[in-house]
Amino acid sequence: MLDDLADDEALSLRAVAREVSIAATSVYLHFPDRDALVLAAMQRCHEELVGSGDQAEAAASDPAAGLRARIVAQCAWAESHPGLYKVLHESKVNRALGMPFKAVLVERTVAGVQRCMDAGLAPAGDAGTVAIDLRTAVNGMLSQRINEPDLPWPPVTEQLDRFLAKLVGLTKW
Fold this sequence. Notes:
TetR/AcrR family transcriptional regulator, 10 helices, mainly alpha, 71% helix, transcription, transcription regulation
């Protein structure tokens, strides 16, 4: 439902109850309020997003290919679930409660950048700063593509490859 709505504020517990054919009050047996339900759904979606990147990176031949594969997988997940991606990054629940589970994705990106640096595939530097710059660029790109789909976007991988070259310093993957 969140993927279809693309807005956490548009979700109601009554609508969720109708969707799963239970009484509205039954939802409260599992979640104290709507925000808790949204947060739980977002955590599950974020775990899927991270898992898709983990699988892609594990199949790669070297750290640079692994970092690229991780981000390409995350972009594919966002393209398949644009409403959920918006909720994960633009939701009222995110602004109000934060989502500490999102730190996992940042940690994985930092580790991927550090592996590239350690292997001599990227210039040495502060992997944390580089990873945050990369995540900012990728999140901005995905958000813009979702919110402004009519713009003449280049292929995702072309744009991502420019980010990897300019922000991480990778020359091959």
